[in-house]
Batch of 2 targets.
Target 1
Amino acid sequence: MNDIFLKIINREIPANILYEDEKCIAFYDIHPEQPGHFLVVPKRLSKTILETTDEEASHLIKIAKKLAKENIIDKNIEGFKLKVNSGKSAGQEVFHTHIHVIPYK
Ligand code: AMP
C-alpha cells in the first residue's frame, strides 16, 4: 500500500517533524497553505477520521491544540484553522487520517 504518511512514520522518506509520541506524529506540510502549516497524524492507519477510535481522535485533537499553542499562539500569530478533509469529494488526497493545523497572521 502506498501510504506516504506511513513512510514518514517509518523514516523511509524525510519530513520536517515537529512532534512525535507513541500514538502520533506531526510534521510540516510539504505544500503549505500558509507558512507554518503542519499535519497531526495517527501512527495506526485509519483512512478517514471515521475509522479512528474515539481515543485516537481525542489524542489527535489534544496534540493539535498543544502544538497550535506552542508553535502558533505563543509565537504571536493571531489565529489558526484545524481542518480534516474526509473523502475525495471533500479534497482528501492522502488516505491516512490527518488534521491540518494552518496558521493565519
Ligand atoms: P489532504 O488533501 O487533506 O489529504 O491533505 C494531504 C496533505 O498532505 C496535503 O496538504 C499535502 O501537501 C500533504 N503532503 C503530501 N505528501 C507529503 C509529504 N511527503 N510530506 C508532507 N506533507 C505531505
Target 2
Amino acid sequence: MKRIFLIGYMGAGKTTVGKLLAAQLGLSFVDLDHYIEGRYHKSVRQIFQEKGEDEFRRIEQILLREVSLFEDILISTGGGSPCFGDNMAFMKEQGTTVYLKVSVEELTNRLEICKGTRPVLKGKTGEELKRFIAESLEIREPYYQQASIIFDAEVMLTEADIQNVVNNLELILKKEN
Ligand code: S3P
C-alpha cells in the first residue's frame, strides 16, 4: 500500500505535478482543495468568504483524515494544510511526505498570475505580495521541512521542465520502497 502527500506553498505545483506523478506511479490522485469543494459544493474562496478561515481549517483537517483512508493514492494538499493542527505529524504517520520547494521570488512570479483563486492572497500585488509570501513562507517552512523528501521544484516553466520534475520524483519515490 502506498500513500503519498505532496506539500508546499501555493503555486509550488502540487496539483500539476501530483496528477502526472500519480499516473506514472499507478496511484489514484486526490487534490484536497477539490475534494473539499466537491463535498461542500462551494469553491475554497466561497468557503473562506462565508465561513471564515478557522472553519476552512477545521474542514480541511477533517477531510485530510478522510482522504487518508484511501490506499494507493497520491494526495496534493493545500498550501496551509501541513501548518495547522497536527496535520503534518498525521501525514508523516500515514505515508510519504514530499515538499515541493520553490523560492519566494519564483512563487511571487507564479502567484502574480494566478492568485485570483487564493483567498489568502486577495488584493495583494507586487512588493506587497512578495513580502506576504516571504513572511508566511518563513512561518510555514518549519512544517514543510519535516517532509521525508524535500524536492527542488524551482524550474517548471515548460512542459519539459514539469516532466523532468515528475520523472525525478518518480525515481526517488520508487527507490523509497
Ligand atoms: C491555502 C492554499 C490553497 C487553499 C486555500 C488556502 C493556503 O491551496 O487550500 O486557498 O493557506 O496556503 P493551494 O496551495 O493548492 O493553492
